UniProtKB/TrEMBL annotation:
Protein name: Galactosylgalactosylxylosylprotein 3-beta-glucuronosyltransferase
Family: Belongs to the glycosyltransferase 43 family.
GO biological process terms on file: carbohydrate metabolic process; chondroitin sulfate proteoglycan biosynthetic process
Annotated source species: Drosophila pseudoobscura pseudoobscura (Fruit fly)
Site (Interaction with galactose moiety of substrate glycoprotein): Q299
Active site per the UniProt annotation: E260
Cofactor: Mn(2+)
Enzyme class: transferase
Annotated PANTHER family: GALACTOSYLGALACTOSYLXYLOSYLPROTEIN 3-BETA-GLUCURONOSYLTRANSFERASE BETA-1,3-GLUCURONYLTRANSFERASE (PTHR10896), GALACTOSYLGALACTOSYLXYLOSYLPROTEIN 3-BETA-GLUCURONOSYLTRANSFERASE P (PTHR10896:SF50)
């Protein structure tokens, strides 16, 4: 795991008292000397204790999370990403949101054949514990003129990672361009199987949400139902890891528009009353399906005109498709 020093506990540094040796009063037996050396050891002991306490206070004040927070069920956030001018901006915004959340591992998975040092550098700087992996979209989908299954190979790679490395906690698919209120992360930690909640800014209905009637899940509200059993947005559900591991074949289909539905169906058997309803029983909106305006690729820098300027350095930070 890279990044983030959130879980480093204070080292059991031995106090100076042991390393001081027994310098004075070497067995003379005199009352004076004995009293003196006891006083000296006491002083050293108190001084060391004080220094230790001050250091500990300082250390704790630098810790982003209280020990009680670190003990909570872990969260695994799977974020698909891909190379484009907006990429580092998206990851920066999402990363600093995640930085408010304790006991979290961010699985950043790029639709690419190799990792990009600029992405790794951005993740390092943010300081959220992360794994950065690649999972390219299969060539046949890349070539198609029709809608592409965006982020699917990335998410399936994330599921594979979790099957190898995670035993408990909760998994959430967080696209790199969406907007998340951090309280949803605290709520999703305690999902027993699958949890769902509303997502703002989805299609013509303005929101995609489970419909709750008399306290029970009673269908879905979404601008496009499309024959789906689970017409929900990617940002609107999370899954318990133990439950996922009991479904070894669960994965996301390469089927544009049906990624969420296909994945949730692959978690069968799952009864509607086993779905936890978050965000105040789906009366609140804590996640939004936002979209960033696409930017044209930056033009090439005139290296003759701008040689020996900062622009040469900046140019290396631009993500060009
Ligand atoms: C919506 C859904 O929220 C996605 O989860 C779903 O995969 C997508 O539609 C779909 O049905 O194809 P949308 O906002 O339209 O998402 O798509 P993007 O934000 O462009 O992509 C979703 C995720 O996949 C993002 O995290 C993005 O970084 C990643 N992505 C996108 C790739 O990894 N490769 C791509 O070529 C495009
Ligand atoms: Mn998106």
């Amino acid at each position: 795991m890279k990044g983030g020093g959130a879980y480093i506990s204070i080292g059991s540094s031995t106090s100076g008292i042991n390393s001081m040796g027994s310098g004075s009063g070497s067995g003379s037996g005199s009352k004076m000397t004995l009293g003196k050396s006891v006083k000296m050891y006491l002083t050293i002991f108190i001084a060391t204790t004080c220094i230790y306490m001050v250091l500990y206070q300082y250390h704790m004040s630098r810790e982003p999370f209280a020990p009680s927070e670190v003990g909570k069920p872990p969260l695994y956030i799977i974020t698909p990403t891909y190379r484009r001018p907006e990429q580092l901006a998206e990851l920066t915004r999402l990363g600093y949101t995640l930085k408010h959340v304790a006991n979290l591992l961010w699985l950043v998975i790029e639709d690419a054949n190799k990792t990009n040092p600029l992405v790794a550098h951005t993740l390092d700087r943010i300081g959220v514990p992360y794994e950065y992996m690649v999972a390219p979209m299969p060539e046949k989908y890349k070539q198609t003129k029709k809608a592409k299954p965006r982020g699917v190979s990335n998410r399936n790679r994330g599921l594979e990672y979790l099957r190898q490395h995670a035993t408990e906690g909760v998994l959430y698919f967080a696209d790199d361009d969406n907007t998340y209120d951090i309280s949803i992360f605290e709520q999703m930690r305690y999902i027993s199987k699958v949890g769902m909640w509303p997502v703002g800014l989805v299609t013509k209905t303005g929101v995609s949400s489970p419909i709750i009637r008399n306290g029970k899940l009673d269908g879905y509200y979404d601008g496009w139902i499309g024959g789906r059993k689970y017409p929900v947005d990617m940002a609107g559900f999370a899954v318990n890891i133990k439950f996922l591991r009991q479904r070894p074949h669960a994965q996301m289909p390469f089927k544009p528009g049906y990624e969420e539905d296909g994945f949730l169906r692959s978690l069968a058997p799952l009864d509607n009353d086993e779905i936890d309803l978050l965000a105040d029983e789906c009366r609140d909106i804590l996640t939004w399906h936002t979209q960033t305006k696409k930017n044209p690729p930056a033009q090439a820098l005139n290296k003759t005109r701008y040689s020996n300027t900062n622009l040469v350095h900046i140019d290396k930070l631009l993500v060009r498709p």
